Amino acid sequence: MTPGSLPSVLLAEATNPIIRWEWVVEEWDQIWQAIVEHITLTMLAMVLGLIVSAFLAAIALRYRWTMTPITATTSLIYTLPSVALFALLAPVFGNLSRWTAVLPLAGYTLLILVTNIVAGFQAVPPAVRDAADGMGMSRARRVWTVDLPLAVPFIITGIRIATVSTVGMVTVAAIIGQGGLGRLIFSGLRRAFWTPMTVGASLSIILALVVDAVILVIGLWLAPWQRRRKSASS
Amino acid sequence: MPDPTSQPDIAIRLTGVTKEFDGAASAAVDDLSLDIESGTIMALLGPSGCGKTTTLRMINRLIEPTAGMIEINGVDVMSQSAQELRRGIGYVIQQVGLFPHRTIASNIATVPTMLGWEKSRSSARVEELIALVGLDHELLNRYPDELSGGQQQRVGVARALAADPPVLLMDEPFGAVDPIVRGRLQEELLDLQTKVSKTIVLVTHDVDEALRVADTIALMNVGGVVEQLATPDELMRAPANDFVKSFVGEDRGLRRLALNTVSALRFHQGPVVDVAAAFDDAERAISTEGTDWLGITIDGRFAGWTRVNDVSAARTNGTTLADVQRFDPIAQIEPSSTLHAAMELIMSSNSSVAVINDSGNYGGVVTLEDIRRALSSADIETADGTI
Questions:
Q1: Nearest of B387, B332, B330 to residue B359 by alpha carbon
Q2: CA of A76, closest CA in chain B: separation in Å?
Q3: Which positions in chain B touch A136 (Cβ < 8 Å)?
Q4: Assigned domain for A233 exists
Q5: Does the beta-carbon distance from B101 to A223 stay under 8 Å?
């Protein structure tokens, strides 16, 4: 926002209703397209973020000394201002390329995802590992059939946090012409017209909540043993 | 291929086994040789840091020895891959280590699954094992967190037995459960052992546990040195040195009471006659024993006690032994009872003897003096007054 836009927004507040439903009906195609784009960007960023995080977490778990530099680097990425990052990458990939938006978005997920994946694997009880080894389970088999399933609840938690924050961050990508629902918000701001801003912002919030709930359910489905935990008597 | 030079009844043989950990000042286990007989329970007993767990873990190669050789049924454990070796050895640990994300059935079937058993064979085996360890079939579809500690430990044992390995390694298997459950699990292990006859190596720091479950105890000191290799009774009766004495504690004599059963005593007839006996025989029994009580048996079963005065009165009155008033026996035991139980019964019933019933039939009486004599006769060590 330029400082000059502020007075017009304040002025608009006085003359515009917060939402005009006729506009929503008229522009539904545009809104729907923004939702689809928003989801697409979020998913691409998450998939890319997960792939990179899995790789980084595997390195960190295998070679303990890499944990500190990996955490430091992903933390650094996390602190970069998103507006600046989008602007910086725009000339590299071009405004129209999705990757200009997806790369920074994926970058922001790394810290949360790597931390949670590593924590998940580290939380596997040593006795469980000892028993698996003692029964003659190969290392690869143990990692895929014991360690990974037990790490799932932690990984799911990381994915939930990262996804919700990505849904919010996608809107910022509107400054480079991407950004799904963010575009509605920005166009509303530019025109001092409340309705698109209200629609864009509320849908972004709703989307975050829905996606969070969906991943939560997937997590419970993947870890059924966590649902049935209850104490038993001897 | 079995080694023709090794005796067939030795299941596990350690020869000069040494383990030096990197950076440690001294060896964790130093030149240890140990033979474990097939079908017996060997307890590796000792304080922490004595190398008992290291020794156990070298048998299934979770720790690789620095030097020496370990053979299982004559085969060097290094002659196959560690994973193959371990699939043929049962492994039970203190924290159980059940897979929290798998059902009980799936946990028990871990090794059969790795060995590629058919599903039907594997699930039949699971059913068999859950019954063997005394758990309800319904638990098979539960997850480990839904079970109590004792139940989990039983599942751990079932899982270790799944592929019917000849050898079972148990590392402090009952250390994480409360004393009551521990006692029950120890009993169940002995009961199970009569059915499966495995060669079991059990690591423990608990003297009572070793005395209770082991056939042989290797009492170890720091550096994996075996201070004494003996049966539980021998260890109590004739501790080899001061370390053994101080480790097993001051109450060795009392502990032996729990290790020996009444059947070990020479049964003593006591002042007891058949109900049809002549008064002469009855009075001879009384005078030999010097008691004021006479026991009566009917058809070989103990029927009760009579007062000597009543017996004399009956003789004078011309009635029979059968007419004399009998008092119900208060202290009765089976030959399989421990001396500890016999002593407890004698003391708590405030009588001087307990009647031994061998599956209902009268077997004799046991007195405190009999118990004392039995414990001291075996060894002169008891002459120093430790009993």
A1: B332
A2: 36
A3: 82-88, 111, 114
A4: no
A5: yes
* Spatial CA neighbour of B338 closest among B267, B271, B261, B232: B261
Q: Is B95 on the interface with A (CB under 8 A)?
A: yes
Report all structural domains of chain B as residue ranges with CATH numbers, in order of start: 10-249 (3.40.50.300), 263-375 (3.10.580.10)
How does DSSP classify residue B268?
B
Burial of B267 (0-12, 13-18, 19+ CB in 10 A): middle
Q: Note every long-range contact of B78-85, with CB atoms under 8 Å and residues 24 or more positions apart, other chains counting.
A: B82/A136, B83/A136, B83/A137, B83/A138, B84/A136, B85/A136, B85/B60, B85/B61
- What letter represents residue B386's amino acid? T
Instruction: Express each pLDDT in B31-88 by its tens digit.
Output: 999 999 999 999 999 998 899 999 999 999 999 999 999 999 999 999 999 999 999 9
Number of domains in chain A: 1
The model carries a pTM of: 0.78
Taking one residue from A and the other from B, the number of pairs with CB-CB distance under 8 angstroms is 89
In a domain, A121, yes or no: yes
Report if residue A91 sits inside a domain. yes
Give which of A114, A141, A117 is closest to A129, Cα–Cα: A141
B176 in contact with A, Cβ within 8 Å: no
Give the separation between CA B290 and CA A186, rounded to whole angstroms: 113
User: Which CATH number is A24's domain given?
Assistant: 1.10.3720.10
Question: How many angstroms away from the CA of B72 is the closest CA of chain A?
Answer: 16
| Of the partner residues B98, B146, B151, the one whose CB lies closest to the CB of residue A228 | B146
Q: What is the pLDDT of residues A68-97, one digit of tens each?
A: 999 999 999 999 888 888 888 877 777 667
Within 10 A of A77 (CB to CB), how many other CB atoms are there?
16
Contact residues of A toward B, CB < 8 A: 125-138, 141, 146, 149-150, 223-225, 228-230, 232-234
In a domain, A12, yes or no: no
Candidates B12, B21, B150; CA nearest to B76 is B12
- How far is B166 from B199, CA to CA, in rounded Å? 6
Task: Please give the ipTM for the structure prediction.
Answer: 0.78
Closest Cα partner for B236 from B374, B373, B343, B381? Answer: B381
Tokens of B93: 């640990």
- At B383 the pLDDT is 34
Q: Which of A141, A146, A234 sits opposite B99 (nearest CB)?
A: A146
Token pair for residue B103? 């059902």
Domain that residue A107 falls in? 19-223
pLDDT of residue A233: 39
Cβ(B111)–Cβ(B163) below 8 Å: yes
Mutation target for A interface from B81, B92, B95, B99: give the one with most A CBs within 10 A: B99
pLDDT at B118 exceeding the cut of 60: yes
Helix axes A194-222 and A181-191, enclosed angle (nearest 10):
160
In chain A, which residue's Cα lies nearest the Cα of B100? Answer: A225
Which of A14-28, B16-30, B328-342 has the highest average model confidence (pLDDT)? B16-30
Residue A230 has pLDDT above 50, yes or no: no
For the record, the structure tokens of B357 come out as 């019933």
The number of C-alpha atoms within 13 Å of B114 and in the hemisphere containing its C-beta is 25
